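[job 0412] stage=complex_fold ligand=arginine status=START
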Amino acid sequence: MKDIKSVVAKKLEKSIEQLSWTDIMDNLEYPPNPEMGDLALPCFKLSRVLRKSPIAIADLLVNSLDIDIVEKCESKGGYLNIFIKREYMVNNILKNMVIGKEEFGKSNENAGKTVCIDYSAPNIAKPFHIGHLRSTVIGHSIRRLHEFRGYKCVGINHLGDWGTQFGKLIVAYKSWSSKELIEEKGTEELVRIYVKFHSEAEKDPSLNDQARKWFSRLEKKDEEAVELWKWFKDISLLDIEKTYKMLDISFDSYAGESFYNDKMEPVIEELKHKNLLVNSDGAMIVNLEEYNMPPCLILKSDGSSLYATRDIAAAMYRKKTYDFDKCIYVTATAQDLHFKQWFKVVELMGYKWAKDLKHVGFGMVSMGGAKLATREGNIIYLDDLFSEAAKRVLDIINEKNPDMEDKEQKALDIGVGAIVFSDLSNNRIKDIDFSWEDALNFDGSTGPYVQYTYARACSVLRKSGLIEDDINMDNIEPSHMTNDEEFALLKTLSLFNEKIDQALKDLEPSCISRYLIDVCMAFNKFYNSHTILNAEDNKKFRILLTAAVKYVLGNGLYIIGLKRTERV
Ligand code: ARG
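[job 0412] stage=complex_fold status=DONE, emitting structure tokens
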């Protein structure tokens, strides 16, 4: 409806001098039921600006929409209700969808612009847990939204592959593990000894000193330390990549924190040169008092760098390498202050592009009210989560459709989809208290419901014999749309572009997941009340409507990173 809305707004703008096109766009809404029109302009807010009663405004406007897409207008109780010609809905809107197919919803309005998206970023030798899953799926979807609107996207995995934890790991490895064990068990063993380190260090604090020493050896490029660090990193990456494979996610760059080891010195020099660095008890900081923030720590008193130091160096590197128009960071809202601080530092350094840095936060994940923390061993492993989900889906398949082809892979796709969808179905900012029951609930507004509806549309199309490469609108008449379910479905489908715009503006993938549920409900309502393949004159219309459902659902699933399950 994006185009309809904007055409209508353009016309209305001409009738109301005091209002801009954007004002009208913001005010136009979709009425809850068809008797109230397909679009409506509530005139209450306009009343103050125009110094007229809402009813008088609606009366005034009722005859102004003499454009060929509008069937009729009504003034009712302060609303201007607008009815769109069915002919236009069928000949233009439906046509765009079935001709557009995989391209429907895409535009190149941002061609030539580059956006860097920093997401996932798990920490090496720690479990890839459900908190990082959030960054991964939200970031991935934000990336696809940008791609749909023509941006060139650079997906960056800023791996946590540097820091004092490597000192701890080396000590832990030497004390309680072996090459064989780590090679056999991978990350699981690394996590086991990491957790053990913390409980042992409580009893014997000298372990912390040893760990510090090992980390400082690593920073000085001591051969043994570097070799162990690399090995831990490789072992860990193998497991991490398995997870990405299940999610079907890949990155353009794996430049993690260690990548910036030799890129911080010039940044520190520059900060000094620009008189931004202050000595505070031996540490080097940038004072941000004026901006009501605690200082940004650049160097510890022992001379080692910090998370923020690396982020500043990384941003400069990315600007130089990719010349981004926007650089987006997807992490928990717990890191809000960190980003605000170093964004400010970049601004104080005089870089105009500081305004193009954007932090996209999301809520915390807890389990049964308890925070998830690696150190305490209170972790949900993604592998376990995905295999449990797949197992539960497989049980359902075995019960309902035991002969299904390739059922293990499908169970995995649907199980993973269920988890991803549940992660993306609420505003990202909301905290999540994780429960197996909710994540794997296959009824209601869930991923499996959308994937299943998609498969249903595909199955209708297969049976219809429609050749999708050769879709045309020949012999389609607006009069073929004979009932409210079809019209309601077509209207819902037509909102796709607007939902993409909204999701992109708010960097909010849940706009798309919620919308997909609306499409599924509208399609299932139509599907359950009307025959498609046995219809008479309007059989082709109904098949094309089903094809439009397939493309909109398919493109939506793609954006939120779920597999398109053609057959289930
Ligand atoms: N590894 C970090 C964490 O787990 C996230 C890194 C996010 N990206 C960044 N450029 N700071 O908290």
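The domain at 4-84 is CATH 3.30.1360.70 (Gyrase A; domain 2).
[job 0412] exit 0
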